[in-house]
Design a protein that fits this description.
Largest sheet: 2 strands, antiparallel
Number of helices: 22
Mean pLDDT: 76
Radius of gyration: 21 Å
Helix content: over 70%
Number of strands: 2
Number of domains: 1
Distance between the termini: 17 Å
CATH topology: Growth Hormone, Chain: A
Strand order of the largest sheet: 1-2
CATH superfamily: MFS general substrate transporter like domains
């Protein structure tokens, strides 16, 4: 196998631009975790209503992500990335200037329409620049924001809420967006454009509509805590639309969602593992932010700072995990990361009101290791099974699964938590909305809340048992010839 330096100057510049854009998009998803009580008080809204700030953003992401491959082919990766970045930055400025909850939700949709393609386009650009020989190590670079920002977001959010106002949760994206725009202008290289590329209009109608309907249904179910007719119909309709989109894709030469890539066994297995990791990762960070505030009575800033260990650990573990993936394959590192992440969640599944912060912080250290050693190496393994011409479609599929599983994880775990709070906190406000928005003497309800959260974390830990099945089936290291041609190894 030919030797490749991990980073040359050209690849480093591309990575900087991609990471800046990805960081901004992901930060904006997580930074609002600790702001729900503050925004709720200002707009006199319940937590259920406030959660639509995040839900509207997620649905907008789901609508545009499937169109990523066509947009890259039609407009070129550089131009497409910069258009999305500009739209996201404008949406951020407008979100910060919102005068009502309705306006904020609308502008969050605008953010999502721009931010939805930032990550998949960036991943496709970086994957193409890296080649199979450096896929694992380089993909860990774009993977850093995926795990660092969910933990740093609440800290930044708490600091902003303590020193400024919630409006700056969105204004902070503007200077980052401007910096990323200038870096991309100078260093990103334009890919070949196919002006004659036709959009798969039927797929573009069926798949985004189905995904948006599913996310709407599961989120409504999670927010309400009960399975309403509207939520059930929305989920079933969404599943039907997605099934029709898959059937259509199998009959179309160049579909918007190329499910034929799942015939590549290594790519399909990586996507299966990514679903479980996305489910768990999407739900546990909001749970932690909520627990430290309503379960322990900490301020948003302190609650955010207490979640920083996963970020610190991930920064050191991600490069190591990427190197191992390139040398011996993801099968050697992902199962280990899954077990470590499971151990971390089992600690939280035994929460008590007097559980020491030292033990909780140790659990978060394990969480950082586990997250860094699971989904990013798994997807790097999946990308390595694709030809360069398939990377755009592969990135689209992986990001759809990540967003959908994350939304599903939040909805399911929020519902479980709401049910357990109702059972474990008798005689006090039992709604998560009331506890988070209005605040109550946490010492009186701390034991019941600890039990409710521990049972919810147990569900997420058990989900990782299912993740071990695809994790143990991931491909070993691929064989790369001097021309960077890929030979699959089972």
């Amino acid at each position: 196998m030919s030797e490749h330096p991990v980073f040359d100057s050209k690849l480093s510049r591309v990575a900087i631009a991609v990471v800046l854009g990805s960081s901004m998009s992901i930060l904006d998803t997580t930074i609002v975790y600790v702001a729900a009580p503050t925004i709720g008080r200002q707009f006199h809204a319940s937590l259920v209503a406030i959660q639509w700030i995040g839900t509207s953003y997620t649905i907008a992401l789901a609508v545009v992500i499937p169109m990523t491959r066509w947009v890259i082919d039609r407009f070129g990766a550089k131009r497409a990335w910069m258009i999305c970045l500009t739209l996201f930055t404008i949406g951020s400025a407008l979100s910060g200037a919102s005068w009502s909850l309705s306006a904020l939700i609308v502008f969050r949709v605008l953010q999502g329409l721009g931010g939805g393609m930032i990550i998949p386009i960036g991943q496709a650009v970086l994957s193409r620049a890296a080649g199979p020989a450096r896929m694992g190590r380089v993909m860990t670079i774009v993977g850093i924001p995926n795990f660092v920002m969910p933990a740093l977001g609440p800290t930044f959010g708490g600091l902003i809420l303590e020193r400024l106002s919630w409006h700056w949760l969105f204004y902070i994206n503007v200077p980052i967006g401007v910096a990323a725009w200038f870096v991309a202008t100078r260093y990103l290289e334009e890919t070949e454009r196919n002006r004659g590329e036709r959009l798969d209009w039927l797929g573009a109608l069926l798949l985004p509509s189905g995904l948006a309907s599913i996310i709407y249904g599961v989120t409504t179910f999670g927010n309400a805590g009960t399975l309403s007719i509207a939520a059930a119909v929305s989920v079933l309709a969404g599943l039907a639309l997605v099934c029709l989109a898959i059937v259509h894709a199998l009959r179309t030469p160049k579909p918007i969602f190329d499910v034929r890539l799942w015939k590549r066994r290594g790519f399909a297995i990586a996507n299966a593992a990514g679903f479980f990791f996305g489910f768990v990762g999407g739900g546990i960070f909001p749970l932690s932010a909520l627990y430290f505030q309503i379960g322990r009575g900490y301020s948003p800033l302190i609650a955010g700072m207490l979640q920083s260990p996963p970020s610190v650990v991930a920064i050191f573990i991600l490069p190591v995990a990427g190197s191992i993936t390139d040398r011996v394959g993801a099968r050697r590192i992902v199962p280990l990361g899954t077990v470590v992440l499971m151990a971390s969640l089992f600690i939280f599944s035994h929460l008590q009101a007097n559980t020491t912060l030292l033990l909780l912080e140790f659990s978060l250290v394990l969480r950082g290791f586990g997250l860094a050693a699971t989904s990013t190496p798994a997807m790097a393994s999946g990308y390595a099974q694709l030809d360069p011409s398939q990377l755009n479609s592969g990135s689209t599929i992986a990001n759809i699964i990540q967003r959908l599983s994350g939304a599903l994880g939040i909805a399911v775990l929020t519902t479980v938590l709401q049910r357990r709070v109702e059972a474990e906190v008798p005689g006090h406000p039992r709604s998560i909305s009331q506890l988070a928005i209005h605040g109550h003497a946490h010492a009186l309800i701390a034991p019941g809340l600890a039990t409710a959260f521990s049972q919810t974390y147990l569900i997420s830990a058990l989900m990782l048992v299912l993740a071990l099945i695809p994790a143990l089936s991931l491909y070993r290291a691929p064989t790369v010839d001097p021309a960077d041609g890929l030979v699959e190894v089972g």
